[in-house]
Structures are given as structure tokens and as C-alpha cells.
Amino acid sequence: MTAYEKPKVWKWEDEELNKGGNRPTAGARFEQTLPVGEAPFQLYSLGTPNGIKVTIMFEELKELGIVDADYDVYTINIGKDDQFGSDFVKINPNSKIPALVDYSADKPLNIFESGSILLYLAEKFNKLLPNDLHERTETLNWLFWQVGAGPYVGGGFGHFFAYAPEPLQYPIDRFTMETKRQLDLLDKTLAERPYIVGETYTIADIAIWSWYGRLAMGDLYEGSAEFLDVASYKHVMEWSKRISERPGVQKGLAVAYKSLEN
């Protein structure tokens, strides 16, 4: 393998070859009209770890009897660059799923970033976020921990373990080390409590389970559960299984996504 020599100014070498996927620029690439259903919430997403956070949240709210938490969910196929269409970019200028529009507000309200959506829905319906100052703050501590830590698992470990053109030891070692450190942190935390914050299931559990619970149960990156020896994190495994058995979680994973063409 030839050593990489850093240029003084980086240039995108695929500019003339790679017309799809990521680019070093933001913004819409084509005109798009997103469908809008009749439910008060319109969700544009995909069944990724970040995407399932929101469908699980909606289904958990429904399980709690919140009848106003009705939503339509549409597939944003990131492999076909749906996220770069003009309508989607109006909702989320960062062109990442999930993106949500609340039509029940005084005027349509755009919410993007999965952590922001979870917090918005929890506050709107006063569910899955404790009112006690200490427990609320602890919930937000862990919610934002996941938002900050998750990219090391997905864009770091997951990318180099499962998707990179060739296996490279340095990045795999680097991100495996960090992923296992995070799993150890969760395992030590969950050794003392049934849920991330304590005795109560919260949006912190939803956010963290969607990445780390799925990872622990072998549902992310083929072969990664064995590679990471996730079975050794027994408290994470018990917590992951407990949450996977919740009706709201199961319904959130099984939700039917509508096509943009419908």
C-alpha cells in the first residue's frame, strides 16, 4: 500500500466521476415534492439506527395512550440520494435522516437530528422525560452522550469494519478500542440500574438502544458482535434484550414505510 502524502490543499478527486453520494458541499441537488399525509406528524426517514429512534418513540407514545402521536412515515432512500431533494433539504439543510414536520403546531414546524426529535416529542407530550430536575438532567446527559458517541460506532467502527473498500488495521483498531470502551461504560452503568437513567425507561434508552442494543444483539454489521465480544458485556446484553421485548420497540422496528411515489 502506497503511503498517503497530504497535499497542501485538499481536492475532491472524484468530482468528475462520482455524481452521487456524499460531496464536500451542502444543499439541494434536484427539485423534489415530498408527499404529505393526513397525520399530524410527517416523518421522512429510513430504518437505520438513527431512523428507528423516532419510529420507536412514536410507537412508545402510542403505547402510553397518546392518541395525538399519529404519524406517516416515508422512505428516504439515501442510496438513491433522496436526502438531497429540495423539499427534504428545506426540512433538514444537513441532508440527513430522520426529518420530521409537526403540522399540529400553529404553523408547520421542522425538526431534524434524531436527538432533537426525541427531545421535542418528549417535551410536547410530557412523556419519557422525567420532570424531576436531577433525573431530567441525567436523561439529557445520556441523550447527548449518545449523539456525540454514536459516530465513533457508525462512521468509525462500522464504516471501517463493514464498508471500507479494504480492511485497514489502524482505523479498525482505533475505532474498535473506542467502541469497546463505550460498551464497557454502558455495562458498568447498567450494572447498577435497570435503565440508563435509573428505574425509569426514557428517551435516553431509546437513543442508546437503537445503536448499542442493536449492536449487542448482532443486528448491526455482520460478524461485529463476535468481533467485539459483546457477550462479555452481560449487563448491556440483559438491558438490550429487555428493551427489545417492549411492544413499542417491536412496533417501531416493524413499521411500514410509505414510498415517496405514493
UniProtKB/TrEMBL annotation:
Signal peptide: none
Transmembrane segments: none
A family per Pfam: GST_N
Domain GST N-terminal: start-end pairs: 42-129
InterPro entries, A to Z: Glutathione-S-Trfase_C-like, Glutathione-S-Trfase_C_sf, Glutathione_S-Trfase, Glutathione_S-Trfase_N, Thioredoxin-like_sf
SUPFAM superfamilies xrefs: GST C-terminal domain-like, Thioredoxin-like
Record-linked PROSITE patterns: GST_CTER (PS50405), GST_NTER (PS50404)
Boundaries of every GST C-terminal domain copy: 132-262
Listed CDD domains: GST_C_YghU_like, GST_N_Ure2p_like
NCBIfam families, A to Z: PRK11752.1
Protein name per Swiss-Prot or TrEMBL: Glutathione-dependent disulfide-bond oxidoreductase
Source organism (scientific name): Jeotgalibaca porci
Taxonomic placement: Bacteria, Bacillati, Bacillota, Bacilli, Lactobacillales
